[in-house]
Design a protein that fits this description.
Number of strands: 31
Strand order of the largest sheet: 4-11-9-7-5-12
Helix content: under 10%
CATH architecture of the largest domain: 7 Propeller
Mean pLDDT: 85
Number of domains: 3
CATH superfamily of the largest domain: YVTN repeat-like/Quinoprotein amine dehydrogenase
CATH class of the largest domain: Mainly Beta
CATH topology of the largest domain: Methylamine Dehydrogenase, Chain H
Strand content: 35-45%
Number of helices: 2
Radius of gyration: 47 Å
Shape: flat
Distance between the termini: 128 Å
Largest sheet: 6 strands, parallel
């Protein structure tokens, strides 16, 4: 017992001596790392659950330079190093983006959106769904504004016609919010409104009757849709003309009407009028029973009108003698002996392309050769010798779509009409000689079809070099004739049957 007490006193003395003298040369510091990776330096051994390493005092600094040195208490015990310093603050000119904060520099690859657009928030005019009364057009100017689509938001129509009464027609394909703005002393008798799906609406500062109707959009006056629109307005109101028209595929934000459109015949119910040809010449057209009917390019005829029942299209050709007729059928070319009535098929050789969409046939009266054109594939031109009863050759048309073909006896060549409204000249051996864009040069021709959605109609060609008569039939009778002069490069409407332009198609 005494020995144990003496041993304890001796150990305490040694501890006191160590405190007074300082740490011994072989004293150690324990570096302890717990399960979370935190490091502490202790004078005592590491606790259970941690891993540690004993380092001699003075050597514990041999660690990574970014680890702060442990501090020492007055008793010489080591404490945990201070936490690392916080990172420096972000520069003031580049703060983290957020609400109320300056925006960081824009990434050039980020798309830009448009500016926000608020609704107009104006009261729409009530819609009347019954047919508009005839009285709306009484003593009123008729103004038409039409387009496929309008401007984003609202399309404004400003009518500055002081002292005038105006009937306004608004038609489109897409829905449009129209804002009608009459100027001082301009009276709006009514609005006729039309669009696909009946979705368009009208806003205005003053009340006005708005009739929701069915009408085509017609931004081009040389178009069958415009004829339909004018014809329907004539049926409703009895009008013979439109006083002002503004039309575009995409209407501008503001359309201003300050004066009538200068006199243009296409704005009238009658349409473009015919003029006398510079020179008159004769040509023949075929009747349905394969007889020749004599005509002139001024529209006069040597055949009594009551006997005329003309054959439309270019799928029949009469031989030079008049005895044989060559007809394109669903199965190919057919030769018919008019005297005997015998019909003989004319099949193409096996190594020739089969007829596909055969569109026109013509007869060379000098060589007795029949020429056939087709649309199938890239299109082909075939030649058949009627004397020797054999096919001569064929050639590709390279995607030129020919819809009418005729032989010119004066120039000994062919002329052809294409699906895009061009006039071609072709040699009697089948080689292309020339091309002329003609459809835009024919007055009133655009009124026969919808230029935005369809091909021009095929015309019957009657060439008499240097002129070509281009004939349009309606109901088996000649309705219009244009004459093209190859020398002058001019085309004019030289005949129009009375009332032709009044035959407006139904809505």
């Amino acid at each position: 017992m005494r020995h144990a007490i003496r041993g304890s006193r001796r150990a305490a003395g040694l501890v006191l001596l160590a405190c007074l003298v300082g740490p011994a040369a072989n004293a150690q510091v324990h570096r302890c790392v717990d399960a979370n990776g935190r490091t502490e330096y202790r004078s005592a051994a590491c606790d259970s659950g941690t891993r540690g390493q004993a380092l001699p005092i003075g050597e514990e600094r041999a660690r990574s330079p970014d680890t702060p040195a442990p501090s020492t208490t007055a008793r010489g015990e080591r404490t945990a190093p201070p936490p690392p310093a916080a990172p420096p603050p972000a520069p003031r000119d580049l703060p983290a983006p957020g609400f109320g904060s300056p925006v960081a520099p824009r990434d050039p690859t980020t798309p830009r959106f448009g500016s926000p657009v608020a609704p107009l928030n104006e009261r729409e005019q009530p819609l009347l769904r019954e047919a508009p009364p005839r009285s709306l057009a009484t003593d009123a100017e008729l103004v038409v504004v039409s387009g496929y689509e309008g401007s984003p938001g609202v399309t404004r129509v400003r009518l500055n016609r002081p002292g005038k009464r105006v009937l306004l027609v608004l038609s489109s394909y897409d829905k449009i919010l129209w804002r009608v703005e009459p100027g001082p002393r301009t009276t709006i008798s009514g609005v006729v409104l039309a669009s696909h799906g009946d979705e368009s609406r009208v806003v205005a500062d003053i009340p006005m009757p708005v009739h929701l109707v069915k009408l085509p959009y017609a931004y081009d006056t040389d178009n069958i849709k415009f004829r339909s629109l004018l014809g329907q307005l004539n049926r409703w109101f009895g009008v013979e003309k439109i006083d002002a028209v503004r039309g575009e595929y995409k209407l501008p934000p503001v359309v201003e009407i300050v004066a009538p459109t200068p006199g243009r015949p296409e704005l009238t119910l009658q349409g473009v009028a015919a003029t006398a040809p510079a020179s008159v010449f004769d040509f023949d057209l075929l009747t349905r029973d394969y007889r020749k009917a004599g005509f002139r390019n001024d529209g006069t005829s040597t055949t009594p009108r009551q006997e005329l029942n003309l054959l439309a299209g270019s799928q029949t050709a009469l031989s030079g003698s008049g005895r044989y007729v060559y007809v394109l059928t669903g199965s190919g070319l057919q030769e018919t002996d008019i005297e005997s009535g015998v019909r003989t098929p004319v099949p193409v050789p096996t190594d020739f392309p089969s007829f596909s969409w055969a569109t026109a046939v013509a007869y060379d009266s000098h060589q007795d050769i029949v020429t056939v054109v087709t649309l199938g594939g890239e299109g082909f031109l075939y030649r058949y010798d009627t004397r020797r009863k054999r096919w001569l050759d064929y050639r590709s048309l390279n995607n030129v779509d020919i819809t009418s073909l005729a032989y010119d006896p004066q120039a000994r060549r062919y002329v052809a009409w294409t699906s895009d409204g061009r006039l071609l000249t072709i040699s009697n051996s089948g080689e292309a000689l020339g091309s002329k864009a003609l459809k835009s040069m024919l007055p009133g021709f655009g009124t026969l079809y919808d230029g935005g959605n369809g091909s021009p109609p095929a015309l019957i060609l009657a060439p008499r070099s240097p002129n070509v008569a281009l004939v349009h039939l309606q109901g088996g009778a000649v309705a219009m004739i244009w004459t093209y002069d190859e020398k002058t490069g001019q085309a004019r409407l030289t005949y129009k049957r009375a009332g032709t332009q009044q035959r407006t198609p139904p809505l």
